[in-house]
């Protein structure tokens, strides 16, 4: 019987070579996976910058499936998901992160945003912990507050207490505390000033807006609120518009500044000038961010009896497919009304009233 000699050097070489080859393959796979994940993240960031939040979220989900343990990514995905209102899904991601790092105040703030957006029962007790409010003693304990300097939490809490729970007394305590805890923050005075104006305390609210502007003259949200207040009086309207124009130069992609300038032009009864304010914003904003400026521009074009211009703007919005169809249907019905087609307009408005439940943003437009 013939015996075969085993070539041990060759066998060892093959085994070692196989191990090296397999290891190299795994390394190459890991490299490709990492590179693809990086590309997905880059595309997600680009989509977000362009205003395409839905696409950004889809890409971020793909990234999470590749890098499940990436806490920073999951944090950003949670932040993304709050943008279009996917609050419950965002909360799930945030809770996973909090389980890994319960003392992270940034995550607690993101969780609070999710709870308020989804109108969950836990939103108020959780916010109490963030601002340090103790319901049993009806007082604030700054030492226990997790995020005493986050103005947005106070605002969401106060509004929810006042509107949803009809607890105006506690809402007032909360909005007073935001200034008490942040006496040098212009946004704190802005929050209290706007709250006071909504509750009818106009003079006190104006004083807070003036203080807010003194403390934060470069904050676009503060500037717009202050300018709107000035624009309410004929003698200070020019000053208000000048302030807004300067704000637009420094913050060209801040949409409310164009809305505020257009509103003040309307107060002047200068509709063409108001339309130009919207057009100035449309010219510099990414297409997605400019959609509501297109919408309000069309409303003014209808009122100014610029039917051809309004139809052209409506066509741009329809072609872009970036704004919900009910909004565009509303504009066309409005245009029909100005054209004297009252029956058609009324019929469409009735249909859109029913659509308000599926598109909540229409409520403020139609009511």
Outline the structure in words.
The structure is a single chain. With 367 residues, the chain is an all-alpha fold. Helix content is 74%, strand content 1%. The protein has 19 helices and two strands. Strands 1-2 form a two-stranded antiparallel sheet. Strand 1 and strand 2 form a beta hairpin. The chain is globular. The N and C termini lie far apart (100 Å).
Low-confidence stretches: 6-35
**Strand-residue fraction?**
under 5%
What gross morphology would you assign?
Answer: globular
The strand order across the widest sheet is 1-2
Helical segment count = 19
- Secondary-structure-based class equals mainly alpha
Give the fraction of residues assigned to helices.
Answer: over 70%
Q: Characterize the main sheet.
A: 2 strands, antiparallel
**Mean pLDDT score:** 79
Query: Order of SSEs, N→C?
Result: HHHHHHEEHHHHHHHHHHHHH
SSE topology sketch:
Elements: H1 8-49, H2 53-66, H3 71-82, H4 87-100, H5 105-117, H6 123-131, E1 133-134, E2 139-140, H7 151-163, H8 168-181, H9 186-198, H10 202-215, H11 220-231, H12 237-250, H13 255-267, H14 271-284, H15 291-303, H16 307-320, H17 325-338, H18 342-355, H19 362-366
Antiparallel strand pairs: 1-2
Helix pairs in contact: 1-2, 2-3, 3-4, 3-5, 4-5, 5-6, 5-7, 6-7, 7-8, 7-9, 8-9, 9-10, 10-11, 11-12, 11-13, 12-13, 13-14, 14-15, 15-16, 15-17, 16-17, 17-18
